[in-house]
Every structure is written in C-alpha cells, then in structure tokens.
Amino acid sequence: MKITLKLFASLTDYLPPDARRSNIVELEVDSGASILQIIEPFGLPMKLVHLVLVNGHYINPEDRATRSLVEGDVLAIWPPIAGG
Asked: Cys-Cys link to 71, which of 1, 35, 47, 75 (CB 3.0-4.6 A)?
C-alpha cells in the first residue's frame, strides 16, 4: 500500500537526498505496518521522534508500535524543538 511520509526540521537529513528539499517521500509499505516499522529503515533516533501525526491526528508514544496505517495515510514527524 502507498503512504506519504513527511519529516520536518533536522529529521529531513534522514530522507533520501532527492526528497530532502521537499521533506516528503511516497512509500510502498506492507499492509498493517506500524508507525515504528515504517520509520525503522530511515534510522531515525527515537529521542528525535517527538511529535507524530497520522492525517493530522496526534499519536501517543505508547501507541506508535501498534498503530497501523492504511492506504493513503500521511505520516508526519517532527523532532523536539527548542527556541526562545
């Protein structure tokens, strides 16, 4: 099935080089794949996987290993952001 993965801020460095400018990559993933299974191949450090949304809805950290995606879902991930 096809989904869209969007990584923001410093996480774009983990995308393939040709996708870093747009921060978006279309993925073909197994049906029933969890969020953690989908992001594992990208090598994202879990301490940087802070805000996770599926179709604009927040996913709690304890649900990310079991939350499955379906065809057409958009998975968006932001790192912790500091500033002032």
From this structure: 1
